[in-house]
Structures are given as C-alpha cells and as structure tokens.
Amino acid sequence: MNEMPVQPTPAPPVDAPSPDGDRDLFGWRVRADLPLPELPVWAGDGRAPDILIRVAAVSPLDDGAQVFSPRIRFIEATLCFDVPDVARYRVDGGHLVTIEAARGIAADAPEIRLFFFGTVLAVLCFRRGLIPLHASAVALDGRALLLSGESGTGKSTLAAALLARGYPLLSDDLCALDVSCPDKPMILPCTAHLKLWGDAAARLGIATDGMTPVRRHLDKFRIPVRSASDAPLGPGTIIRLKRVTRAEQVGTRPLLGAEALCYDLIHRFRLGIALGYQSTMLTALAPLVRSAPIIQLNRRDDLGALPDLADHVIRLARDERRD
C-alpha cells in the first residue's frame, strides 16, 4: 500500500462545550461530550478545539470498506472500530471521533474510555503525525525511561514500582513519539493514571477500595497518580520486558541493529501498516533507536521480586544511557 500522508486536521465545528471542560492530549485541545478525567484540563491558548469527541449514532461502513479485522473497517479517511457490548467508534480524519455506546452502557462508562485510549488514540496519532508507542514511561534523570513489551509483561506494575521510588509517571501503556525534529525525538506524556490488577496494587500498598474497574467484572483499576510529569522528555533507555517461565531464562541483553528496529514498540503497528504508515513508522523508529539504547529484560512473573526488579531497571537505565 502506498504511504498515506498525515491527514489534514482543520478545526472541527464547535457546537457544545465539554461537560467538564476542554482537555489537553499531546498538546491537542480536545472537546468531548463525555468526561475525560484521565486528561489534564486545557490550559493553552484560545484556539478552536483540535479534536471533537461526539456521542451519537455510528452507522457501519458499507461493503466497499477494507476489513482489517472483524472489529475494524476503514475507507479513505474514515475508520470504524466496533467493540461488542461496549461501543462503536468512528474516526474521521484526525479531528473527529464519534462514539455510540452499546445498549446498557452509559456514555461515561470507563469501558468507553478504555478503548478510546487504545486503538482510537493510536489512529489519531498516526493521522496527526505522531507515533503511538506501546510503552509506559517514567521520568528518570530528566529523560523518559520507556517500559515496553507485549500486554501482560508488567509494564504498568513496574512503572508503579518506579513511581513509588519517586520517579514521576509520564504515561501508562501508551505514550507518543514526536520526531518532527528528527535530531531531537521527544516522548509526549498521555494520561496521569495507572491501570493495575488488584494483586499488583495490593503488593504496592495501593488501596483500590471504592475505585471503579477499567471494565465491568474485571479486577483491574485505573488509579489516579499525583506524581506525574506533563512535560515532553527526550528518550533515555528503552526496557523491553519479556515474561519467561524458567530461572535460567532470566537476564538482560542489548538489542542492536535491525533487531532494535522492532515495530512492536508501536501501539497497533499492524493497523498502522494497513492504514499506509509503514515507512512513517520505520522512519520514526530510526532516530529513537539512535537516541536510546534498547535492553531486553527477561523476567519471571513474581510480584515478590518487584522491588529488586525496579532497582535493577534503574541501574540499567543509568548505565546504558547515551548522552
């Protein structure tokens, strides 16, 4: 597929204020029909919103649309993402998101935001010239320490352990890479919240009583974080977490050359390829890899070892950092 240019993002029509005020997402002014407590209140200039999020009916795309998966179809600048029993999302260009909640789901339910801050946000990033990274990030010595890896490898839990040591959170699970200045790639923070399973929160001494699960009947909670950084930072070190089962597999090794240029650093990279952003992603990864060493860390699923793991990651980041 030919490379898709960044979608033009003219200011969308403005017809109603956000119920809890406009919000700031990667420096974009966001106006939404639903509350977005994960995002800071907009404190920028008085420009029109960059992104509108509307709650309204979403019609399925016609048979001429390309099918990426049973849940995702797209045609030209429009993409529909259907999450059964949660919502249907439509993304038009890089400026308008329409959400239709499933029957019995309130528009402000946490499930609605859970999928917005995943697939939908990744699409907005691609279309607005950013690269969505599948990583949690904390601020360490004035740089962004990125914790990447497949879902379930402990990115959020390790970020929470580092936060407990006083290293401010930039973002959990998804942050954005800005390479508009190729010689100075920057990591943009996203939400000042952590998504933690109940047992991990308990191990870290974080109370979840009264907190709403990220999804109904799921023992996982979105936890507000006070110690958060809202300033973009240059990349420091990237730790790629991999879960292993045997003690002899535990360890670290640097990733170099082509092995370091891994698309799985990018959130929803296969969708990005389908949408035509393959060369954009590769071009963005190159300056990131030049700026930040990538270390693969094999770890076992042991919450009791979390304090030692956090100390080990801090040492790795400081020893490997490129100035």
Explain this structure to me?
It is built from six helices and 19 strands. The protein has two domains: 23-129, no CATH class; 132-320, Rossmann fold. It is α+β, with helices and mostly antiparallel strands and 323 residues long. The longest helix has 18 residues, at 110-127. It is globular. It has helices spanning 110-127, 155-164, 198-203, 269-274, 278-291, 306-320, and strands at residues 23-25, 28-32, 51-55, 66-69, 72-75, 78-83, 87-92, 96-101, 131-133, 135-140, 143-148, 169-171, 175-178, 186-188, 193-197, 220-224, 235-243, 251-255, 294-299. The strands form four sheets. It has an eight-stranded mixed β-sheet, with helices on one face. A six-stranded mixed β-sheet has the order 12-10-11-17-19-18. It has a three-stranded antiparallel β-sheet with strand order 9-13-14. Helices cover 21% and strands 29% of the residues. One of its GO terms (molecular function) is kinase activity.
Shape: globular
Distance between the termini: 38 Å
Strands of the largest sheet, in order across it?
1-2-3-8-7-6-5-4
Instruction: Tell me the domain tally.
Output: 2
Looking at this structure, what is the CATH superfamily of the largest domain? Answer: P-loop containing nucleotide triphosphate hydrolases
Indicate the low-confidence ranges by residue numbers: 1-12
- What is the CA-based Rg, rounded? 19 Å
Please bin the fraction of helical residues. 10-25%
Number of strands: 19
Helix and strand content put the structural class at: alpha+beta
CATH top level assignment of the largest domain: Alpha Beta
Calculate the mean pLDDT score and round it.
88
Here the CATH topology of the largest domain equals: Rossmann fold
Strand content: 25-35%
CATH architecture of the largest domain: 3-Layer(aba) Sandwich
What can be said about the biggest beta sheet?
8 strands, mixed
Work out the helix count. 6
Succession of helices and strands: EEEEEEEEHEEEHEEEEHEEEHHEH
EC number: 2.7.1.-
Region (Disordered): 1-20
Protein name: Hpr(Ser) kinase/phosphatase
Enzyme class: transferase
